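User: Structure tokens for both sequences below?

Assistant:
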Amino acid sequence: MIDLRPHIRAGSGVRWNQAGAEPTPLVNALVEQVGEIGPIRAFAGLTWNRAVTHDPPPLLSVTSYGGLGELSTLSKHGLLDVVPCHYSALPRLFAEGALPSDVGLLQVSPPDATGNCSMGIGVDYIADAVEHTPVLIAEINRQMPVTRGAPTIPLSRFTATIGTDRPLLEAAERRPDEVERRIARHVASLVRDGDTIQIGVGTLPAAVLFALESHDDLGMHSGMIADDVLRLIDKGVLTGARKEIDTGMVITGTAIGTSKLYERVGAMPIGFRPASYTHDPSVLVRLRSLVSINSAIEVDLTGQVGAERRGRIYAGAVAGQTDFTRAASLTGARSIIAMRAARESESNIKARLEYGSVTTARADVDFVVTEFGIAALRGLDLGGRARQLISVAAPEHREELERATHSRRS
């Protein structure tokens, strides 16, 4: 294990890659040594690393852009500080020193013949933070693939390194259920041949990508990709042939999947770009065919979207949802919010947002899709929006929503 004490001082801000690109040995070393180093403020994105979230050391405080993955456990215990910002704002926040960035922990590929290491499957916000981070410490993993377009870092830029040869962390494989497949079929009906889609990762996005298999010449420009993207490329569905920019290429910031994805991604027509490109409004405005497909925790009867909190717990994030929904609605093709109509006995379509966070404004939402159908909101007044949304709510909750609509008018 690397001794981080010569490189990290008490009071430092430390940040690292997320998901499969997380430099787990370095992060675990930090968790073990923080008691000897002193108080540390860390910035982490999506993590599956329980060393950070289960019985965390008291001297390590964690900040993030949301409560994704295991970070929701920290939120549950009041140990997560969330900066509610658009993903497109992260590069600027790192540049201004608003987020922890004294020391960067990275996982990279072995150096090439010129001495440069690829950032591989995890580019996203890290690539933008690197130039504003004085001290970089690298895990050089022989199994990190070299990916197209990913920024490289000279080996000489690292203050310290460790070498590993370990599999990248994988996302848990779960299959969509029947409800998610029904939602996905509705979503797919809103996507046209030649559209460029943005979509997240998880079982519902997986179901949507499966439902798109009969489409032609789709493109993709998204913050993250999962295994199902490979299947659409292999089937000749995801060609990017009609994309206005980056023609023929899938553009993303990070790959979050299994070893099947990681082993092939370097040889595929997939370009990895930093958040300053994937989420930049000046880039997105050029994608006139953009269709954003995002999820929600709750939607109110005007179309406002809450995708961050479930009760007191941060279980989501602003992330790139607003960046993409606004671009898709204003200058692209259409923005879609897809979700289950209910969770257990609670309706996810509500008279008012219950958890207090408006992630996406109602003006940026064109369609809300549940297993019960499609609520087409574009161009409707508030009354029309309410009627559309009630029509796709779970049947057992529609009467209550109708009453709430009438009481609000009286």
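Moving on to the next sequence.
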Amino acid sequence: MRKAAEFKLDDFLGETTLYDKKLTLEERKPKSWLKSISAFANGDGGILFFGISDEDELRGLQDVKRASEKISELIKERMDPIPKVSLKIYRRDGKDFIIVNVAAGMETPYYYVGDGSRIAFIRIGNESVPAGAVELKRLVMKGSKSTFDSLLSQYRLEDLDFSKLRATYRLRTGKKITVDDFISFGLADDNHVLTNAGVLLADESPMRHSRLFCTRWLGLDKASGLMEAWDDKEYSGSLLSLLQNGEEFIKNNTKMRWKKIADGRIDMPDYPERAALECLVNALIHRDYMELGSEVHIDIFDNRMEIYSPGGMFDGSLVQNLDTDLVASKRRNPIIADIFSRMKYMERRGSGFKKIKGDYQYAYNYRQDLAPKFQSTATSFFVTLYNLNYNVPAEKVAFGQEKVDFGSEKVDFGSEKVDFGSEKVDFDIILEQKHFSNITKQRIKALHDSIGSSKIFTRKKILEIMHLSPTYASNLIAKMKQIGIIEPVLGQGKGKYKFKIFGD
């Protein structure tokens, strides 16, 4: 037998949280330890120790050579497919130990086959448990190198509208999203069949379990009656609509403090805006859409905000047991994550945990006990953001719900009149010649891309598509009328418009 290497348990336990221990090799009950082999292979890999008690006592094995041969034999006989493992013998204080290192598998699910059963196991915390129907589907997708958002749906690109996506993409990137982009981004295939990602981004998404529930509770805990909630909203539809509606709900149900300083003022929001947005974006993007009958929740209390998302950590770990500064970014829905990254709602790389914590650490009223809290189970993820202004004395501080009036932008149209006549002029070129701010131009372009020149629209439609304040929507209409790029539609009622057609 090859000479055993010196064994130090701490060398291994310090490298991974995915491990299991067995005092002896149970040959007649191989399921007792092969379930861990299955769970490790179906997850991120792990280590199985033989010769160590549950209390970490180093007892050793009697016949280590025979035990190692039996382990290899039973893995080949009882596992399907056979996972990649490495088996090594170690010695310490005259005692022999076996360590089986199981690699993360690429051909999931890995089944234990025996006793008339065929079971795939997964790792939840420090236990190996049978995979349920939903978990088994996930393993099948993993083994086929696919994700839920990449699966083809029953809908075609032409079946659904994407005005919200087109407008938002134009607004945030300055570019139009084309049919070719839908295909290259993974929102549809070459035959224009939408993936689940594409369906989730449609205006009236038919994926009914894609919803957002928001509640502003009275006090510090959830109450039983509806009268105990100050505000309660339920949203469905496009992921972009859910995101924007969630942002608006948070802004409407939180406050901004501020205080004057010598050269200006310091803003002190209840919650750092970027941290709240990051949590909401991640809850929508990384949620497990295979968890039917569930939805993302925002619950705001006097002292905290809780955001719940269906689905635990993608790799099955428990976030509360991890150093969140070192957690690598793993995306359950990479296509959705990619399109949101393109629209600059999130970064392509890096962990959102550090960003959320960093935003809090730089906030004015931050204390260490107000650090964001992350918790997860096998099927749930929770973020708790603490109100930085709760129970903070209000001395020399001004309060208010800060609101931005986009309608205050002053534009001098003068006596300029535009007569396009029969001249063929591109819409974008016409708009670029106007003395508007860049944000106004981008919004007009995004609206034009979304609606086109043939459809009638109203102020209400602008509110739905652009997610603007009513004041700014009215102001936007006034500006477009002044420069002659829209015209009222007669005989259809008041307040209805169409874009003029140029370049024909």
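User: Anything stand out in the second?

Assistant: The longest helix spans residues 64-78.
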